[in-house]
Write a structure and sequence with these properties.
Length: 159
Amino acid sequence: MNFNKVFLLGNLATDVEVRTLPSGQPVASFRVATNRIFKDAQGNLKKEAQFHNVVAFARLADIASKYLSKGNIVFIEGRLNHRSYQDQNATKKYWTEIIAENLQLPPKKWTTETSAEMNQSNETEKEVPIIPEEDPFDEEIDQSTKKSNTINIEEDLPF
């Protein structure tokens, strides 16, 4: 069995560009930025951004072009696609993109309020919580607690 599935929750790094295939089908392309927070070897928190190329076809392309703009939060469900081509110097180039199969728009408040409107209404900016790769509370757990949560196959399983 094979499985090629991608889930992205991030912010649009570019505005949506829409083209039309010779068949008349619309194609939207845009980039989504995702953030990762982790601790380096010295224990300092580091932030790293990754940028992902996303392509949407047909009805999803129409929806993306109509409702998404740079900075919006978006949830993309899709699959990885790898392409290769030769440039003008006959050098082979590779391109990885995510073909969108589903997209979810953020709540209306996140897309319609500008930062100026939020400053006037004294509301704080809404953000999607960032979950670090390593659990910062993991250090607080006693090692004996961790050990007691492990399963010993020979002793703990009844069969």
